[in-house]
Amino acid sequence: MLIKPPADIRPSEITDQNLFLSRRKWIAAVAAAGLVPRLALGVSSDPDATGARLADVTDGPFSSDEDLTPFKDVTGYNNFYEFGTGKRDPARYSGKFKPRPWSVKISGECEKPGNYAFEDIVKSHALEERIYRLRCVEAWSMVVPWVGVPLAAVLKRFKPTSRAKYVAFRTIFRPAEMPGQNTRTLDWPYVEGLRIDEAMNPLAMLVVGVYGRELPNQNGAPLRLIVPWKYGFKNIKSIVSIRFSEKQPPTTWNKYAPREYGFYANVNPEVDHPRWSQRRERRIGDLFKRPTLKFNGYGEQVASLYSGLDLSKNF
Known about the structure:
Blueprint: H1 17-22, E1 58-59, H2 71-76, H3 89-93, E2 103-108, E3 114-117, H4 118-122, E4 128-135, E5 140-150, H5 151-157, E6 166-171, E7 191-195, H6 196-199, E8 205-210, E9 213-214, E10 224-226, E11 239-245, H7 252-256, E12 280-283, E13 290-291, H8 299-302
Parallel strand pairs: 1-4, 2-11, 5-12
Antiparallel strand pairs: 2-3, 4-5, 5-8, 6-7, 6-11, 8-9, 8-10, 12-13
């Protein structure tokens, strides 16, 4: 759980007790994704939330008690260029996308490569809700109750070898269903990567839902990555490939503009983007900006990963 020092808490940031309790109501629901039942515990709720409810979701560690961004904003204001470059485009144009059936190819430096069905990827792990601040690339942020499984627990099942220094991810390529892929905006399909120790950090998460419900198409259904101490473009969506690599893999935005988007992409207010400052951010729904926290406020959990690394050069 993220605990802020009292001096850093503004009155507007204190969650009303009734709101806090309402988003911790217990939910008993039937899983629509065929996930293994677990002990039913409470998850966040929103009266505007839609989609099939996920069963037996428990609050995970590292959750924040900050006010949540409303479901309508989480699902209606996105970056997902496969459906268009506008923030409202993913919600408008993702209706034709078919997230079922789904499989993920596991390859590279591991002992158990192969094609795995979506259900096989997540079914042996308890679903957790973790409420993370999600920082995007243009100084706006959200607080989102993601539901998923620890990335490390999934990756360990495939037994990466000692040569696996990085983990590479790839998004599906379906231009017939993803109209943005018919443009030359980016080099499709979208690819991303992490160092293996970053991928194994307990904060990193493979996400299958939000607000206790199945992940909507516009948010990266059926399987996406959340790495909460990094900028939003690292959180690759609609994953169909996970590859263990000895060498640092290419990443889409780094290929597109290497001076602007580094491989690490850690939230760092001390390093400005070439075209704007990253020292302040605006939370969706707020009128004024607030200081950007280094590592998005998760320095205690992740700063040691970068000991001795010059983060102004390795941005």
